[in-house]
Write a structure and sequence with these properties.
- One of its GO terms (molecular function) is glutamine synthetase activity.
- Its cofactor is Mg(2+).
- It comes from Luethyella okanaganae.
- Its EC number is 6.3.1.2.
- Pfam families: Gln-synt_C, Gln-synt_N.
- The protein has 445 residues and is α+β, with helices and mostly antiparallel strands.
- Helices cover 36% and strands 19% of the residues.
- Strands 7, 8, 9, 10, 11, 12, 13, 15, 16 and 17 form a ten-stranded mixed β-sheet that branches. Strands 1, 2, 3, 4, 5 and 6 form a six-stranded mixed β-sheet that branches. A two-stranded antiparallel ribbon has the order 14-18.
- Helix 4 packs across helix 5 (202-222), helix 8 (344-361) packs across helix 11 (404-410) and helix 11 (404-410) crosses helix 12.
- The radius of gyration is 22 Å and the shape is globular.
- The N and C termini lie far apart (69 Å).
């Protein structure tokens, strides 16, 4: 770590960095930033930077508000969108109390704790997100709602189009930040795009997602458009998900791979899926944390709302992708419910905890879904033993309230804050009178 700190200090001097932004997130997953001068960096490394934690959503209570942000030197990167004018860099921070203890409500620390539990069992957790978002002409909207930048569709090539130039610029900027991109393409909705990040350990991935959102927003501003990660901005177009591929490794060996097993999926892999399936309803208030998230889950367009798994079945909540011959290291599963607005630190903590619970308790994996579950009736689904994800944020809160797994994984303070925050959002949502009600009821009642 000392070598890494020396590298950071040397780089700041050699590149003439003028500002260093210290980044962390609140419990909702909003990025927070404070800029310090180069002369303050060494002190931040040794002592941390003090701030009022009670002013940050869910981070601490007023009577214990003093917190310290400790920059992680391994996350140091210059910010390419700043250019040569006042060059700026960033580092993610770990949050502690004044006595040096990890802040219990720091989302990054929640993920670190969960990863340590996995490490105690010999596992490293890797993730690979496919992040969808919409490009709009503006953040403003009129009677017809938001206006997308194009009318293109899935995998469409739009020569000279806004989205084409946007993705090229974004990918180049992400690569400059050390974030490897696997794919980028136009998605199914007008103005909808997807960029897939390469596999990395879950903490690196979560940091990369927070950086990714900032890059996308910055490039949009640069190009005179607006980017949104809102789960469902259009009622008649697909929502934006963040399908996440995941696997556990034991050393250099993929713990999900077993040669000769069905779908080359090991017992550990099957138990991990079983854990995710069993606890999926409980974690949905975190992986799909907004009222609007449920418009995506239940709005059709291939969103996963039924708790089941399948081999390469895109209608299932959990998909086991096609096995690549001679590539056992690529064995993985894909969780399809999580949306692009989730807090990645808390979501990945809960997804990992649910899978580990399946391994610890030896959960049995139910039969796979071979049919398109979207085409089945409710009666047929019940007959097959398929349950549903929560139908609304209110429904998800009810599952969350009763979940020992979520309470244990998040810790008491984060758990209570998430509950309080989501209850408040639901109260505010259910008291509104919507255009739908006025349109359908005002004149005839």
């Amino acid at each position: 770590m000392d070598k890494q700190r020396d590298f950071v200090l040397r780089t700041i001097e050699e590149r003439g960095i003028k500002f260093i932004r210290l980044w962390f997130t609140d419990v909702v997953g909003t990025l927070k930033s404070v800029a310090i001068a180069p002369a303050e960096v060494e002190g931040a490394f040794t002592e941390g930077l003090g701030f009022d934690g009670s002013a940050i959503e869910g981070l601490t209570r007023t009577f214990e508000s003093d917190l310290l942000a400790h920059p992680d030197p391994t996350t140091f990167q210059t910010l390419p969108w700043r250019g040569d004018v006042d060059p700026t860099a960033r580092m993610f921070c770990d949050i502690t109390t004044p006595d040096g203890q990890p802040a219990v409500a720091d989302p990054r620390n929640v993920l670190k704790r969960t990863l340590e539990k996995a490490a105690d069992r010999g596992f490293t957790f890797y993730t690979h997100p496919e992040i969808e978002f919409y490009l709009l002409k503006s953040s403003k909207y009129g009677e017809n709602g938001p206006e997308p930048v194009d009318s293109a569709g899935y995998f469409d090539n739009v020569p000279g189009g806004t989205a084409h130039d946007f993705r090229r610029r974004s990918v180049r900027m992400l690569e400059d930040l050390g974030i490897s991109v696997e794919f980028s393409h136009h998605e199914a909705g007008p103005g909808q795009n997807e960029i897939d990040l390469r596999y990395a350990d879950a903490l690196t991935t979560a940091d990369n997602i927070m950086t990714f959102r900032t890059v996308i927003k910055e490039v949009a501003i640069e190009q005179g458009v607006y980017a949104t990660f809102m789960p469902k901005p259009f009622s008649d177009h697909p929502g934006s998900g963040m399908h996440t591929h995941m696997s556990l490794f034991e050393g250099d060996a993929n713990a999900f791979f077993e040669a000769g097993a069905q779908y080359q999926l090991s017992k550990v892999g099957r138990q991990f899926i079983a854990g995710l399936l069993k606890h999926a309803p409980e974690i949905t208030a975190v992986t799909n944390q907004f009222v609007n998230s449920y418009k995506r889950l239940w709005g059709g367009d291939e969103a996963p709302s039924i708790v089941c798994w399948g081999h390469n079945n895109r209608s299932a909540l959990i998909r086991v992708p096609l096995y690549k011959p001679n590539k056992g290291q690529s064995a993985r599963i894909e969780y399809r419910a999580i949306d692009s607005a989730a807090n990645p630190y808390l979501s990945y903590s809960l997804m990992l905890a649910a899978g580990l619970k399946g391994i610890e308790e030896g959960y049995e994996l139910p039969e796979e879904a071979e049919d398109n579950v979207w085409s089945l009736s409710d009666t047929e689904r019940r007959a097959l033993g398929y349950h549903q994800l929560p139908a609304s944020l209110d429904h998800a809160i009810q599952y969350l309230e009763e979940s020992e797994l979520v309470a244990e994984t998040l810790g008491e303070q984060v758990f209570n804050y998430v509950l309080m925050n989501k209850r408040k959002e639901w109260r505010e949502y259910r008291t509104q009178v919507t255009p739908f009600e006025l349109r359908n009821n005002l004149e005839i009642l």
